[in-house]
Amino acid sequence: VIPCVVSQWSAWSGCAEPCKTTYRVRTRHVVQEPRNGAEACPALEERAGCVEYWTRQGTECKQSLIPALITTGGFGKARKKRAAADGKEKAGYCVEFQLVAIAPGCLHSHHSYTHWMRYLREGHTVCVECQHPALDSRSQHCSGDGTGSRKNQLLHWQAVGNPRCKGTWRRIRQLDTCSCPSVHSFLFI
């Protein structure tokens, strides 16, 4: 029996398309074909999720095309301390959204770091803070904050730490500071 032998994986490609949630690819090739009843070769291609926030011409994507990546507001205290330590912190802002649809995956998160997802409820207003380092120095916005979106346009969000926890929301308004209860306060990543 002569087993299949494959090469090492190539480097990951760039995102298949800019300005949308898409995929990147890596490949490998068959070095030796299997013979005499050996097992078939393993997969020769792998794909992984990917989001590219800049067009191939180097301009920033329109915000409404990008899902907002969010995490619990409690993460912000540690992040602010790190940002202050390097002296580059810029003033942030907050965006209020009304939750429209939430995937069932938000309720089925069993890890301690995903318990905050259980507070996401359709119809609730949530506050999402944009702070350094998620605040882009060129645009002065966080990716996915809905800047430039039409009134009542459905925008997409995804929770960091559980890819099955995602949904849609409508942007209500932008504020200088957040005023939501802590269970409804989140951060752009």
UniProtKB/TrEMBL annotation:
Positions of the SBSPON-like C-terminal domain: 88-182
Ranges for domain Spondin-like TSP1: 4-51
Keywords: Disulfide bond, Glycoprotein, Signal
Pfam families: SBSPON_C (PF25031), TSP1_spondin (PF19028)
Record PROSITE patterns: TSP1
InterPro entries: SBSPO, SBSPON_C, TSP1_rpt, TSP1_rpt_sf, TSP1_spondin_dom
Protein name in UniProt: SBSPO protein
Organism (species): Mionectes macconnelli
